[in-house]
Specification:
The structure is a homodimer of 118-residue chains. Chain A is built from 3 helices and 5 strands. Chain A has 118 residues and is of the alpha+beta class. In chain A, strands 1, 2, 3, 4 and 5 form a 5-stranded antiparallel β-sheet that branches.
């Protein structure tokens, strides 16, 4: 059961303030543009920042799990992983991953506006 | 700078398996329907589950931060917090929050499909 059929990868970091937060956002944009966005079935990467400057999420959406698996199987994983490591090493502050397990997701429920349930 | 002007609350839990994961999803749906979805500016709650059964995200979107602040100021926070606690207590397994700081977010960048950046 998936409400939109899409496959999501959720990348999740804590950071030590707004400067590192901004740098990590720009690093995620560059990583998408250099390593991900040109594969078939890539839909979008939306980058969320917490208003308190402590956290960054990157939610990458693929049209289907099959598209993601094709990306995984055919892309240069070693190059991409090295680029991610280089981007993290280049930050002026600290960023710590908060992922647990494989960051592979689907949307199972969506609740829109409506009357209060009694 | 926000790409869509929206305000997001990101709720983030680890769980001890697919049974608890499913129960927590249903609890989040019920909490939205009883306590949140009828306030002005409520846009949606999208509930993500990890394919490995270990994690649940609930991403609640408001049209604007002002709409969220109005909800915060005018809703029954004590009742809602008690309902959340009751829902968590009613799970058959364990669920642990992974939030850090206030879970208030905006989207600052979105990367769509495109050519590889050189």
């Amino acid at each position: 059961m998936s409400t939109d059929g899409s496959f999501y990868s959720i990348i999740d970091y804590t950071v030590d303030g707004t400067k590192t937060q901004h740098e990590l956002v720009e690093a995620f944009v560059e990583l998408q543009e250099r390593w991900v966005r040109f594969y078939p079935g890539y839909h979008s990467a939306r980058i969320f920042v917490s208003l308190d400057g402590s956290r960054v999420y990157n939610i990458v959406r693929w049209e289907s799990e099959a598209d993601y698996r094709h990306f995984e199987a055919t892309s240069d994983t070693a190059g991409r992983v090295a680029a991610i490591r280089g981007a993290l090493d280049g930050l002026s502050g600290k960023a710590e991953p908060r992922m647990s397990g494989k960051p592979h997701y689907k949307v199972v429920r969506e609740v829109g506006p409506g009357p209060r349930r009694a």
